[in-house]
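Protocol step 4 of 5: obtain the predicted structure for the target chain.
Materials: sequence only (see below). No template structures provided, no constraints applied. The aim of this step is simply to have a reference model before the mutagenesis design in step 5. Sequence pasted as it appears in the construct record:
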Amino acid sequence: MTVVDITSRKDRKLWVSEIFGPTIQGEGPSAGSPAQFIRLGLCNLDCSWCDTPYTWDWEGKNGTVFDKTKELTSKTREEIISLLDPGTPRVVISGGEPFVQRIALDALILSLIEWDAEVQIEIETNGTIAPSVLVAELTQAGTIQINCSPKLESSGVSRKKAEHRIPLQSLVLSGAWFKFVIGDTTDLDCMTDLVTAHGLPADRIILMPEGRTRAELDANFTWLFDFCSREGFRISHRLHVLAHGDDRGV
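Step 4 output (structure tokens):
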């Protein structure tokens, strides 16, 4: 495995939005599993239906101007780990976009493994920034699970901005999962094009209805369920939204 010099990175801090749990992983390949979350700040995209705009939207692109000084705190890896629950071995690193801070993220990941040798680490990414060599190797080894969610038409992100797809190749090779948020049939066409163009493995593709409320999810779930039934794709709901709506920290 690639050796990462933690000493040279130990003072690097991460911008953190919130740390919470124990809770339940609400979506993706491990939906329903007990988990705790480290939600990092900052993102390189600006999705119109983003459910965590408070991690990056300082200009009000999603309708509300958030204050970075109030929403994010700068924390060392030791400070982050001190806030985790040792009884919950699954740690989901979300965002924002975690790989925006990938240098400090490497040191955090190695510290998490030192903290608990059996820790199950998930990283949620939009797939536009390649993981570090360390993260790719740990994903191949099964220590890390990458949940990649490439953005489609309904996200409102310009095609040019969202289609920096070279990192998808490294994610395929590392064994990542691909979770597509589907808002309409146009998204299905875009998803199909990406799967074909980049050779995404069908057995690691999960489709999930777009929605931040139960009503929005209900509007998209039935027809997407039927599509997945016909085409042989896995489907995921959003359990945390069903349980608590668009509340934070659940």
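Step 4 remarks: The CA atoms of residues 140 and 175 lie 6 Å apart. The first strand starts at residue 14 and ends at 24.
Proceed to step 5.
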